[in-house]
């Protein structure tokens, strides 16, 4: 099946307690390559729908939390098998509604499978109860599920950022209501339906909509944990909404990740330069951990810029997501394209030089879709908005620095601290990396190229709270419960 040419829009439903639920109101999601084409209609769920989904998850939790971990793993593995069997079609749907090229959509599924399989492989060991005999008696430590989890996800990596939450949450015995972004509601709904079918009704539910549904999911007293990926500003609302009932939280938020190129970096290394370009422009720059500002040691700056532009012109090919030659598609939505353009215009007004990069495979597409010419920005000030704000699009500033102290300070001044990268001789790069305030620092690579699902991922400062991936990413869906059996049941210092 090929979904490139739609015959008619898909219709998306909410899934509540195992049943597809239609809503009175619907919104449409357009094709970012050609916004005149509607990819799908999805429900604008009401707060009542959100409450029904939370109630279903709450009721199913009572039985689900008592199941054996082995049974949960078996069900999850079956779900992964089914997803793998449909991945060709699912990746096409993702390309269509998101705008990312097909190879990129397939890559997103591949990372999702890697993580889901890691979670299955490790769940029994991580969740196993521990029994300790010690000089004061015996203690049993269990990893209990938390309860109903509200998962709220963004549009840029809708599948991996949903499965990153679904797999560990369900394996640990929680139930879930997921709300995806209105900018990518279709493929994730199909993925959720396929997974949910392998679990008892109510264990995994999905509702759609905007802030009012989000507010219910983050304030309802039956919700025990929020797993949110999205913008830092949205997270502030969520923290407030959740504060009345003191919910557990994992927040994966925005970043302004820096690439730091040290004096010892070999600018003639074409593969390294290609990795650098990919770390700025994959998915048209719409990745939380994309390198969004590049600082280059002044002694290399001119040569670096020249080689960078050469490498970018080779790798960047903007085109239809279904064109096998395209490395970059359109920006996902109009609001995002306008935000990026505003930052570029502001940089120009401040006197920066904005240089276009790459090849445009089909200029006609720019007339209809949310396409942007990728650019590099030179000559900006360290505090310019294009440097200190998250662009989340196909543009990147390159700035010179004079010494390590200065560049470490420039890096750490940011309110963000998601990932970062240091490029150069290994020992120099590690020395600088140790002083960087970030959740992950990669050496001589960056962004998804250096991502490994077996290690925890998350941000410091305003880039987030908690970690996903790795063993921590499973444990974050558990509460530690201590069952104590002391030899001495009474304390000696308490008077009769
Ligand atoms: P967003 O914050 O606008 O939206 C994220 C989700 O929150 C959407 O589903 C949205 O409908 C929902 N939402 C909006 N208002 C809400 C409210 N008041 N209560 C509850 N939910 C609400 O983010 P976005 O534009 O979809 O995604 C881009 C942002 O996500 C960028 O800042 C990016 O850096 C960040 N991001 C972070 C990571 C990470 O792992 N740290 C990964 C991907 C994206």
From TrEMBL:
The keyword Mitochondrion does not apply. Transmembrane segments: none annotated. Residues 66-93 form a coiled coil. One of its GO terms (molecular function) is oxidoreductase activity, acting on the aldehyde or oxo group of donors, NAD or NADP as acceptor. Residues 25-482 form the Aldehyde dehydrogenase domain. The active site is at residue 252. This is NAD-dependent succinate-semialdehyde dehydrogenase. It comes from Xylanibacillus composti.
């Amino acid at each position: 099946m090929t979904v490139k040419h739609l015959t008619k829009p898909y219709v998306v439903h909410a899934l509540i307690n195992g049943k597809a639920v239609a809503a009175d109101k619907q919104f449409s999601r357009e094709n970012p390559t050609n916004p005149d084409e509607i990819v799908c209609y999805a429900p604008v769920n009401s707060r009542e729908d959100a409450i029904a989904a939370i109630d279903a998850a709450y009721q199913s939790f009572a039985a689900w939390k008592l199941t054996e971990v082995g049974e949960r793993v078996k069900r999850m593995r079956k779900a992964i098998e089914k997803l793998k069997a449909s991945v060709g079609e699912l990746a096409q749907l993702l390309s269509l509604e998101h705008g990312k090229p097909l190879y990129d959509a397939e890559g997103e599924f591949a990372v999702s499978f890697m993580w889901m399989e890691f979670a299955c492989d490790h769940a029994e060991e991580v969740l196993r109860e521990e029994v300790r005999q010690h000089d004061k008696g015996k203690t049993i430590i269990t990893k209990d599920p938390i309860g109903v989890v509200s998962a709220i996800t963004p549009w840029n990596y809708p599948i991996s950022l949903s499965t990153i939450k679904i797999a560990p949450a369900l394996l640990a015995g929680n139930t879930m209501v997921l709300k995806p972004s209105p900018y990518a509601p279709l493929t994730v709904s199909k993925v959720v339906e396929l997974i949910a079918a392998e679990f008892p009704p109510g264990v995994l539910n999905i509702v759609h909509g905007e802030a009012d549904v989000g507010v219910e999911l983050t304030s309802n007293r039956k919700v025990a944990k929020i797993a949110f990926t999205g913008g830092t500003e949205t997270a502030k609302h969520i923290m407030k909404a959740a504060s009345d009932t003191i919910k557990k939280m994992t927040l994966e938020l925005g970043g302004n990740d820096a690439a730091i190129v040290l004096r010892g970096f070999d600018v003639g290394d074409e593969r390294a330069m290609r990795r650098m370009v990919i770390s700025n422009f994959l998915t048209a720059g719409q990745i939380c951990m994309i390198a969004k500002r590049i600082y280059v040691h002044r002694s290399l700056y001119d040569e670096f810029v020249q080689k960078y532009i050469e490498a970018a012109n080779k790798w960047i090919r903007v085109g239809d997501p279904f064109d096998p030659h395209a490395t970059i598609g359109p920006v996902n939505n109009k609001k995002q394209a306008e935000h990026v353009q505003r930052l570029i215009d502001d940089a120009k007004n401040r006197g920066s030089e904005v240089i276009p990069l790459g090849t445009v495979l089909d200029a006609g597409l720019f007339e209809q879709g949310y396409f942007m010419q990728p650019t590099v920005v030179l000559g900006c000030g360290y505090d310019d908005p294009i440097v200190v704000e998250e662009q989340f699009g196909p543009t990147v500033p390159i700035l010179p620095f004079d010494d390590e102290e200065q560049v470490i300070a420039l890096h750490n001044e940011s309110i963000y601290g998601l990932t970062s990268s240091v490029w150069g001789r290994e020992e120099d790069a590690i020395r600088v990396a140790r002083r960087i305030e970030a959740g992950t620092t990669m050496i001589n690579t960056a962004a998804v190229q250096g991502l490994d699902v077996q290690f925890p991922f998350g941000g410091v400062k305003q880039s987030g709270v908690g970690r996903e991936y790795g063993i921590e990413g499973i444990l974050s869906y558990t509460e530690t419960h201590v069952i104590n059996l002391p030899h001495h049941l009474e304390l000696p210092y308490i008077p009769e």
